[in-house]
Fold:
Amino acid sequence: MLRIVNRVLIGLAGGVLLLLGGSVLAVGLGAPPPSWWIHRGPHDVLLSDTERTRWREQGWWWPAVLAGLAVLVLLALWWLAAVLRRHRLTEVLVDTGDGEGALLRGRALEDVIAGEAGRLDGVERAQVLLTGRRSAPEARVRLLLEPHVDPGDALHRLTTEALAHARDSAGLAALPAEVRLRAVRHRPERVS
Structure:
């Protein structure tokens, strides 16, 4: 969902900036402006003195401007935080039993789970992404299944073999997983 919102917002902002910038450039280079355009020529200002000071004496003007700008700043900060937030877990905390603990690279654990899941019967390809906290990781698994495989059986083998081995080897109490199954596209078989 965040990826879609991000793309839509970037597309809208880019389109508006491109449209406004291109039209201001065209009018500045001497193109005739349309009748509804706010500028009349290359020497016109963005806001005249009258437009700039029109609402200054109104009591609601400055609070409304500040509130609108504050909302824009908060939305921009939320968007920036969402974009910069790491979705992939970089390390997993492994309990060594001596109170110290060890750090396991998240990418290494992902590769091990994906490798073992990819070797399961009927699995064409497996992708794993670890999310969550380093003391409580969560797995997102995508399996591409061959046409003859029962999805329930593949899910059962994934949880009892690959995910259980990863959970036990990393010393985790639990390794919750979100699994997405998809079948390989294949041509229909001919029956004669």
Summary: The chain has a mean pLDDT of 84. The beta strands are 91-94, 102-105, 123-133, 136-145, 177-183.
